[in-house]
């Protein structure tokens, strides 16, 4: 699949700073690869701290005017952006598939998903209410008003190159913040195309700035934002290790933070579950983006009474998955993002099998397709000491753990530093309520594998981070509350 779009002008190879497309100040560039075959798709700026600073300068200058626009006016700009994203869905979906590797149907699905956040926050822009506090003292009126936090730095991951940046930029712009953004090194083209459409929609110069960078230079660029007191908030989706680093390094200027970090989601199937529905839920949830999703089930616990039946049903479905590059319109699982990802998956599977796990299907890379493919895999007889239990595999591997009792599975499911998503299937509604209460996670799927929605609060607990994206709560992370006490009224 080549980099040819019906709107070739959406392929941007420069940073967007202050409404202008510019190279990195020192003209550095790095290549973006197609994970399907490692072909170079384009070269983009390899920005440094100098470029990051220029973006912050622009965002700071643009802030007062954007903040003072009527919410309705900001909403109109977001609505135009939403319409343009949908009008260019085919091109954007193709760009996502090209640089990230997910099948075309999933690429287009991500465009719709990302656009839904823009639409949602366009509406929320006009609903930022404050409070009049019931009177406490004669002659005094106390109010609480909400204000934009200021300049926001958005640092986004490669697994959803459009949706993750859209759901950070949209609420920020909706409430009157301005943004400096850095997409992941591997997937900058979609973010630049999205920024191009934002400009076309009428986002004023400096309100949205996007710079691209390779891993090493990106660290320097982000460090500049972390140290700059004008940047009042950092929103990040990515690994827990990087999230902790960002929290530590931004402490000097006490920034507001939203951190959507790693997960290790349990997926629990009780003896009384509707097995067909549980298998379908697991397939949808586990194999979304080839297993490279933070909310993907990582540990699948199946109660002893249905373990063998469930494993057999599942293995049949998994063996039938079609693994191919996005250029194959029948592809269901694409390449993993890079070689490091495949190596990690292989390390987990080899570790499990060397300790007694058995592969019902898959179990190895697929070099005949290319360097970044791994066969969809079902492992049985998996135990808690194996790497697949302790770390997020982030690939198309389903490890099946056997359990006996509800109490035991709750303890094992919660026995992880992470707490992003958790799923369970049971037809006992009392048990369902207990499980929802006792599982330590920010997102719960109760007889449901597809939990993501612009209308829902998405985010974790424990080492999976804090802050919520989407829903009415998604605005709070971009707002601060100002208390106004007016006296001398009587
Ligand atoms: C993620 O993988 O971080 C986000 C997935 C989602 O929004 O469903």
From TrEMBL:
Keyword Metal-binding appears in the UniProt entry: no
Signal peptide range: none
GO terms, molecular function: succinate-semialdehyde dehydrogenase (NAD+) activity
Transmembrane segments: none
InterPro entries: Ald_DH/histidinol_DH, Ald_DH_C, Ald_DH_CS_CYS, Ald_DH_CS_GLU, Ald_DH_N, Aldehyde_DH_dom, Aldehyde_DH_Superfamily
One BP term from GO: gamma-aminobutyric acid catabolic process
Active-site feature positions: 260
Residues of the Aldehyde dehydrogenase domain: 21-484
Keywords: Oxidoreductase
PANTHER family in the cross-refs: SUCCINATE-SEMIALDEHYDE DEHYDROGENASE, MITOCHONDRIAL
Similarity field: Belongs to the aldehyde dehydrogenase family.
Protein known as: Succinate-semialdehyde dehydrogenase (NADP(+))
